[in-house]
Amino acid sequence: MNGDMNERDILAAEYVLGVLEADDWARAERLLVEDRGFALEVDAWNRRLLPALEALPPQTPRPQVWRRIQAELDRRREQEVRQTIIRPAPGRASLFDRLGFWRWCSFGTAALAAGLAAIVALGPTLGPSYMPWWPQPAEQQTKFVAVLNEGAATPTWLVTVDLEAQALTIRPLNESPVQQAAAEQRSLELWLVAGAAPVSLGLLDPAGELTLPTAAVLSPDLASATPALAVSLEPAGGSPTGAPTGPVLYQGAILPISAED
Amino acid sequence: MQTSATIERSVLGELLAATARHEEAAFQALYLETSGQLFAVVLRIVRRRDWAEEILQEAYVKIWDRAGSYQAEKGAPLTWMMAVARNRALDWLRRDRGEASWDAMEEEQERFADPDPNPLDWAIAGDDGRRLKACLDRLDERARDCVLLSLCEGYTHQELSERMDTPLGTVKSWIRRSLQRLKVCLER
User: Fold this and answer.
1) Which residues in chain A are contacts of B31 at CB distance < 8 A?
2) B22-40 confidence digits (pLDDT tens)
3) Per the CB < 8 Å rule, is B17 touching A260?
4) CA angle, residues A157, A54, A144, in degrees to nearest 5
5) Is A110 a residue whose pLDDT tops 60?
6) What value does the CA radius of gyration of chain B take, rounded to a whole number of Å?
7) Do A52 and B133 touch (CB under 8 A)?
8) Contact assignment for A52 to B136 by CB distance below 8 Å
9) Strand, coil or helix: what is A106?
10) Could you give the angle at which helices B4-20 and B24-46 cross, rounded to 10 degrees?
11) For residue range A147-204, what is the model confidence (pLDDT) as tens digits?
12) pLDDT of residue B119
């Protein structure tokens, strides 16, 4: 346990800390590229020091920041497309932005079912290689993510699904709307929409979270249909009928994160 | 048994791996989960929201480009992402601040709506953050102040010397000794 550090170690630590003036900073940046040992030492100091920054309370950037990031990605993809001959995707690279696809199929809260019907109808026209989640027999999708939006574009909930671990987790991205619902003697109920009738996955707890082992009902649906998740406003205790009785407040598509094995 | 911290870490790891495969849905989810933290880090350094937003945007594009280079050796996914954002902010201070003079930044410092001069809330930091806190607490007070000012706000040696009203050489040796002591302490 020797605290003695050589000049290079000290430079790496000071570089991470941020105390270096412009010329030493530039020297450290060059070393980062040229000297693998230096780069590893910088990684070590990042691991030591940066976790303290998790003690800074989060701050919210304006929505335009994401839009500008997206615009940059769109620009790059357009360039790629111009340079690429369109050919059937082997299963991973998709020429269509999955999120973009859902953007121009924007759902109204009352039109969720109609929206899904539209997607299914479009599928055969575009062909399997253009529907990223269209059944590809050779693949085994096991991990999924869904962002549930209020209206067309206000992300409110983040859902992750892991079929291998048999788990689905939903949590709110900001303050949980569940408490407001509870104050009005209502509850928020999560539904899987994949096929004929929505299936209830349960009520969101006051923190807006729900952790489920995924029942067998999820796995065949997620792998072969065009599934979505929706949250509806129900009486306290949930829907009395087994189907959504109140308005759908949030919805989003379940999208695979391709699992590499 | 997985704690919620390890589950969180593995969700971010999955989203980062998917980002490396250029899956935009996962990248958006990653942004939604982490941008609050990264924005806080950048804002603390450059003070002004418009500068911070531009830096944040550039940082996320870098994360998109470099997600494939992330490995567990670099730390938790969030640590790696904070390093990318913070590095861009520190680089901006040295290269792009340009017309934004130090006076302008001083003004921003006063306007910066944070009544709490010590903004760190260790209750929300993870285990690694709290381990570091325990080691920081063992430093002399002024040395610790220097470490936190540079860690959180990006103060250089020169700026620390001015802020602490202490000779440059003294500040440099405080920093050097503190880093050595932190390294030993964290290795325990």
Assistant:
1) 66, 69
2) 888 889 989 998 999 999 9
3) yes
4) 30
5) no
6) 18
7) yes
8) yes
9) coil
10) 110
11) 888 776 677 888 887 777 767 788 777 666 777 777 788 888 888 887 667 888 888 8
12) 72
Q: Judge: A19–B150 Cβ closer than 8 Å, yes or no.
A: yes
What do you get for the CA distance between the two ends of chain A, in Å?
39
DSSP-derived secondary structure letter, B71: -
pLDDT tens figures, A33-76:
999 999 999 999 999 999 999 999 999 999 999 999 999 999 88
User: Across-strand partners of A235?
Assistant: A186
Give me the helix-helix angle, B168-187 and A36-49, nearest 10°.
80
Q: Distances in Å between the alpha carbon of B47 and those of A69, A135, A174, B41, B93?
A: 21, 49, 23, 10, 11
Mark B137-173 as b/e (b = at least 16 C-beta within 10 Å). Answer: eebeeebbbbbbbbbbbbbbbebbbeebeeeeeebbe
What is the residue type of A217?
V
Q: Whole-angstrom Cα distance, residue A32 to residue B156?
A: 19
Tell me the pTM.
0.67
- The span from the CA of A134 to the CA of A224, in Å, is 7
Min CA distance, A160 vs chain B (Å)?
A: 8
> Which tokens go with B115?
């009544």
Residue ranges of E strands in B16-148: none
Looking at the complex, report in whole angstroms how far the Cα of residue A63 sits from the nearest Cα belonging to chain B: 10
Q: Which chain A residue has its CA at the smallest distance from B37's CA?
A: A58
Q: Range with the lowest mean pLDDT among A113-122, A187-196, A244-253, B30-39?
A: A113-122
The stretches in chain B having pLDDT less than 50 are 111-116
Question: Which residues from B are below 8 Å from A61, CB to CB?
Answer: 35-36, 39, 52-53, 56
DSSP category for residue B122: G
C-beta contacts of B99-104 below 8 A and 24+ residues apart: B100/B51
Give the whole-number percent of chain A exceeding pLDDT 90: 25
pLDDT at B184: 95
Query: For residue A129, with 0-12 CB atoms within 10 Å meaning exposed, 13-18 middle and 19 or more buried, which class applies?
Result: middle
Start-end of H helices in chain A: 7-17, 22-34, 36-49, 63-83, 98-103, 112-126, 178-183, 218-224
pLDDT, average across residues A223-252: 83
* Contact between residue A180 and residue A194 where contact means Cβ atoms under 8 Å apart: no
Q: What angle do CA A198, A201, A205 make, to 5 degrees?
A: 135
